[in-house]
Amino acid sequence: MSGTFYPGRAPDLQAQVQRLLDDNAPQEAQAAPPRALIVPHAGLVYSGPVAASAYNLLRTHAQAYARVLLLGPNHRMPLRSMAVPSTAGFACPLGVMKLDTARLRDWVDHGWVEYNDEVHRLEHCIEVQLPFLLSANPHWQLLPVIAGQAPKEAVAELIGRGLDSADTLVVVSSDLSHYHSYGIAQRIDRATSQHIERLEADLLPDQACGCVAVNGLLRAAARRGLSVHCVDLRNSGDTAGPRDRVVGYGAYAFA
């Protein structure tokens, strides 16, 4: 994804990430580390400002975590399960984020996920988060999961394992509505945001492309008594694109 969703040179990418974080700082300091985040995954010029608003919440809490459970949807290959890669790390111009390979192997052995390198090789929803994660803490380990058409309960169970581990941050990568006019997208995304803030695990693909993972997070969070608030809600018409066909972006924090 280097050179497509974000700059291919490390100095340029670092400068862009830093600028996005500086320009989208929260008005109030986060009192406690978030247990989970929902962030968008388009090119940084489009969704980066919204994603940065959520990642800013980690600036003073990055050392609270040892690993990140990062889930996102399959955009390019069909998948009826949850898939993890067999590689030891994910690379971007800012460095390599090591995977928690022992934990991933355990999940595969238990049948909770399966190995599928191809679905990860073609997918951008995980990799576009790496510049923010590496900037926050280059020593985190990553648990990258592509959630295809998997049962909601299975996704909620997997996410619950992350939420129940105090040193694991859960991140779900998802955009909201796609290719509506600006005003229509705003109405759709506001309604979707209300569902998320009420922890209603009933989102459909036309509301959020990562609805499988989002619904799993909402179900797991509700069972644990977590609350969620909207950090930012915009679309590509607000950031870098035209307003006739926009993509919605939302950032949410769970505590």
From TrEMBL:
<protein>
    <submittedName>
        <fullName>AmmeMemoRadiSam system protein B</fullName>
    </submittedName>
</protein>
<dbReference type="InterPro" id="IPR002737">
    <property type="entry name" value="MEMO1_fam"/>
</dbReference>
<comment type="similarity">
    <text>Belongs to the MEMO1 family.</text>
</comment>
<dbReference type="Pfam" id="PF01875">
    <property type="entry name" value="Memo"/>
</dbReference>
